[in-house]
Design a protein that fits this description.
- About 50% of the residues lie in helices and about 10% in strands.
- By secondary structure, it is α/β, with parallel strands linked by helices.
Length: about 160
């Protein structure tokens, strides 16, 4: 998870080197939650064009509205000709299954996944229970976090 919102802290040549390294390897480069917290005004268009996909994220759909955020991310994908897939950034098990990218065929390698994404041979599934799943995960997180922090402080 590389935060491009902190790109000002990352030297441009280092960022470019990171993308070159990813390009030369069998790695998917996905822009996670592109509209969270601040707009993409800090990310240059030539950088956006280097991603293999943009992420449609469950927490963002919950926070900003399913229709609104889906449209926003899809429009971004169309603007840069970059596919949109769903995120797997679940930090809480209750969120699993909120969103899914369902491929037309079974993939066994990163290369196959990359090709299927590029060819658009997949479907995005948004669970009708997305809002309940994300809200329940937030409640559990807020309940557990202070307990885990207290436990950490005692160790």
């Amino acid at each position: 998870h590389l935060s491009l919102r902190r790109q000002r802290q990352m030297c441009i040549r280092d960022r470019d080197k990171l993308f070159e390294l990813c390009d030369s390897s069998d790695i998917l480069i996905i822009l996670a939650h592109p509209f969270r917290h601040d707009p993409l005004c800090t990310i240059k268009p030539e950088l956006l064009e280097r991603f293999n996909a943009f992420d449609l994220n469950g927490k963002d759909l919950f926070e900003y509205g399913i229709k609104e955020m889906t449209a926003k991310v899809m429009n971004l994908g169309e603007r840069y000709d970059i596919p949109v897939i769903t995120g797997s950034d679940s930090h809480q098990y209750l969120q699993l299954g909120s969103l899914m990218t369902i491929f037309d065929k079974e993939c066994e390698t990163i290369s196959e996944i990359k090709n299927e994404i590029k060819a658009g041979r997949y479907e995005i599934f948004i669970s009708p229970c997305l809002n309940i799943k994300v809200k329940a995960a937030r409640i559990i997180k807020n309940f557990l976090k202070p307990q885990l922090e207290a436990q950490s402080a005692n160790n």
